Amino acid sequence: MVDYAKPLPRPEDAELTQPFWDAAKRHELVIPRCSRCDEYFWYPRAACPSCLREDWEWAPVSGKARLHTFTIVRQPGNPAFEDDVPYVYAVVQLDEGVRMISTIVDYELPDDVAVDMRLEASFDDITDQWTLVKFRPA
Ligand SMILES: [Zn+2]
């Protein structure tokens, strides 16, 4: 794991998102949930996009999702991902309603990947510090 050769996550606000990364390391998925209007939201930000209050917390979610849309990447934008192509770049809709960008793993192209397919979170421990949240067919 230590000689992971691809770009590592560089969170725009590392302090804000640290609980997400800590949960991923435990193989748990958490997303922001407003304490006032109970809405989940993604991406993490200072205020709830529904009611604009800054009163929210990291809430555990099921990791269950469906594939909202996807594309198959055949030419990587970064040379470090050349060994991965083709891979699925996906917009995943969690059962809690929010959509997040991720990748799909544990599938065979083209038959295993389709819009609306059921997915579950999958955790990829790429280094001792970083775990990436991906999704696989459920
Ligand atoms: Zn709210």
Description:
The chain is mainly beta and 138 residues long. The protein has one helix at 14-25; strands spanning 30-34, 56-60, 64-73, 87-94, 99-104, 118-125, 131-137. The strands form two sheets. It has a five-stranded antiparallel sheet with strand order 5-4-3-6-7. Strands 1-2 form a two-stranded antiparallel sheet. Strand 6 and strand 7 (131-137) form a beta hairpin. The radius of gyration is 16 Å and the shape is globular. It starts with 13 loop residues before the first helix and ends with a strand. The model has no long low-confidence stretch (mean pLDDT 93). The chain binds zinc ion. Residues 34, 36-37, 39, 48, 50-51, 53 line the site of zinc ion (ZN).
Strand content: 35-45%
Compounds present? zinc ion
Spatial order of the strands forming the largest sheet = 5-4-3-6-7
Radius of gyration: 16 Å
> Would you count the extended β strands for me?
7
Largest sheet: 5 strands, antiparallel
The average pLDDT score comes to 93
Class from secondary-structure proportions: mainly beta
Number of helices: 1
Poorly predicted runs of 5 or more residues? none
Question: How far apart are the first and last residues' alpha carbons, in Å?
Answer: 26 Å
Q: What helical percentage do the residues reach?
A: under 10%
Order of helices and strands: HEEEEEEE
Envelope shape? globular
Care to give the gist of this entry?
The strands form two sheets. This protein has a five-stranded antiparallel β-sheet with strand order 5-4-3-6-7. The protein is mainly beta and 138 residues long.
